[in-house]
Design brief:
Chain A is mainly alpha-helical. Chain A is about 75% helix and about 0% strand. The chains are: A mainly alpha, B alpha/beta.
Chain lengths: ~325, ~250
């Protein structure tokens, strides 16, 4: 993204933010639901992007952490606790479980790590389904209340959309800070060359566990918003396919790019809706679109932009060299 | 002169093969010790055992008289021991400057302070100085993966110095580096050795480089120390000529 001038970037950002606040004001209930879902899934995908895209640790368990957050919020808010308290519990719980899930990553990597996290995903689903004393089992938990924020009720779709959007903004700022900090640099070192990182004093163990824990905590936040969004949860939405969906969002958007998860979640949540006019074919078209995109650019949507900007830089640099060379020749 | 590093009876077996077979030596404060020997004689394995990348099958390593055998590489690095690698080991997608900041950041403050503190850990100035020192100015913002082999070798060496190490183990720093860049590299190493009082151990096959840079040279063959002494002594040693230098 470094190829754009800074004022242009800021202007573009402000337009997008203003659009996200103003445009949905006259959306119907369903449109607002989809957009809220986009915001929630962006948060979860941002967490996975941290673990996978920046720190290079494969995880097929992000959906399970969304589930952990959702159940924590559902159980607590139906017992009368306020949502912010439930979000804190969701963060602490998924951070702790994510930390523990990080330990296998200290021994196994890549496909093997994918299988370890996949097994965890299945385990979490079974807990949601079978431990009905806590989770309501297959009947789930209904009548999940939406919160009052500063005395304002968010029962209606628009106010609750703003709750999701505001949460997305806070999480985005926090992640932006994190990846620009030395921690973000250490995460990338973990992905690019753990051996070299160790020899430079990077405590790869601790950073690996942190990458899992923080990424999972963001999944927990997403879940804690998902529960009041749908107001009813059961185990099905948190099975392995959610983890795979989130993985796809990260890959399609562009793993390791800051804006990747926003775009990836947009494609995963909105594209199927836009394709609905094709009726019976929309899921097939959606699948084909994803395949074509990844064949065209294996590094995702932002990979295309990144390549374009890199090419432009190279061209500019070689033009400069050509000018310098011709000057040198005239001097001689 | 006191010993910075004391290595006693280090052994490393891989299955039935004994890669390093009871190697003992001292590295004196402020010296540049050369380590030469035929391919496969155990030089790099010895480095990896000293640096905690491999667990030795026997023997001990002391840093400033303190036992450090079994410490992890990151812990040793924090104690002031740094290294370069035989094969290129930079972070290809990070810029040259980011590579150098990363190389120094874990020596600044605590883990928590690095999360809330400045994004460059206060190291931009130090990184720029190192970039200037290794004449990489025009490449500072380029991704390290786009540099030529020789430039990446220079960056690799520069990274090893970012944390202000007392002892640096360099594994074939001259391999694949062209002659003019090589003489630059040698000048830089000598300058850091004198000005920062850093101690070096250098594995190298380029004899001219080793003989002109090092105050002492250790020769290994088949996992054992064959000879140790001043470069001119080692060069004349019949056993060394037989095993490594050739007639």
């Amino acid at each position: 993204m470094s190829g754009f001038a800074k004022p242009l970037k800021i202007a573009l950002g402000l337009i997008v933010i203003a659009g996200l606040i103003i445009v949905p004001m006259n959306f119907n209930r369903y449109g607002l639901f989809i957009l809220s879902q986009w915001a929630v899934m962006s948060i979860a995908a941002m967490g996975l992007n941290l673990t996978l895209g920046y720190a290079g640790q494969v995880s097929l368990a992000q959906g399970a952490f969304v589930g952990i957050g959702a159940y924590a919020a559902a159980i607590m808010t139906t017992q009368g606790w306020p949502l912010p308290a439930a979000i804190v519990v969701a963060i602490v719980l998924s951070f702790a479980v994510g930390w523990v899930l990080g330990y296998p990553a200290l021994r196994v990597q890549h496909h093997y790590l994918a299988f370890v996290t996949l097994a965890f995903s299945t385990l979490a689903f079974l807990v949601f389904r079978n431990e009905s004393w806590l989770t309501g089992g297959i009947y789930g938990i209904s009548n999940i209340p939406r919160p009052h924020i500063f005395g304002i009720a968010t029962n209606k779709p628009l106010p609750f959309y703003y709750v999701c959007l505001g949460s997305l903004a806070i999480v985005s700022l926090a992640v932006w800070w994190l990846i620009r900090s030395p921690w973000g640099r250490a995460f990338m070192a973990l992905r690019e060359n753990p051996l070299r990182a160790q020899s430079l004093g990077v405590d790869t163990r601790r950073y690996t566990l942190m990458a899992f824990a923080i990424g999972s905590a963001l999944g927990g936040i997403a879940g804690a918003l998902y529960a009041p969004l749908t107001q009813y949860i059961d185990p099905v939405p948190f099975n392995l396919s959610l983890s795979l969906d989130l993985l796809m969002m990260v890959i399609v958007g562009g793993a390791g790019f800051y804006f990747g998860p926003f775009l990836g979640a947009m494609i995963a949540v909105l594209l199927p809706e836009w394709l609905r006019f094709t009726e019976g074919y929309y899921l097939m078209l959606y699948a084909v679109a994803v395949m074509l995109l990844l064949i065209w650019s294996p590094t995702g949507i932002l990979g295309i932009l990144d390549r374009y900007l890199a090419e432009r830089r190279t061209k500019a640099a070689s033009a400069l060299r050509a000018v310098a060379k011709s000057r040198l020749e005239t001097v001689q | 002169m006191s010993a910075v590093l004391e290595v006693t009876g280090i052994k490393k077996n891989f299955g039935g093969i004994s890669a390093v077979d009871g190697v003992s030596f001292d590295v004196r404060e402020g010296e540049i010790l050369g380590l030469i020997g035929p391919n496969g004689c155990g030089k790099s394995t010895l480095f990896n055992c000293i640096l905690g990348q491999l667990t030795p099958s026997g023997g001990e390593v002391k840093l400033d008289g303190k036992l450090v055998t079994g410490l992890r590489p990151a812990e040793l690095n924090k104690l002031g021991v740094s290294r370069t690698f035989q094969l290129l080991q930079v972070f290809p997608k990070l810029s040259v400057r980011e590579n150098l900041i990363l190389a120094g950041q874990e020596h600044q403050g605590s883990m928590a302070s690095r999360l809330v503190g400045r994004s460059d850990a206060g190291l931009t100035e130090a990184a720029n100085q190192m970039i200037g020192f290794f004449k990489l100015d025009h490449l500072a913002d380029e991704p390290a993966g786009g540099l030529s082999y020789g430039q990446q070798k220079l960056l690799d060496a520069a990274m090893a110095f970012m944390g202000g190490p007392r002892l640096v183990l360099l594994d074939e720093p001259a391999g694949g580096v062209n002659p003019s860049m090589l003489s630059d590299l040698k000048d830089r190493l000598v300058a850091i050795n004198r000005e920062k009082n850093a101690t070096f151990v250098v594995i190298e096959h380029n004899m001219e480089f080793v003989m002109s840079l090092c105050s002492r040279v250790m020769v290994m063959a088949e996992g054992k120390v064959l000879a140790m002494g001043r470069p001119d002594e080692v060069r004349k040693n019949p056993a060394v000529i037989e095993a490594y230098l050739g007639h």
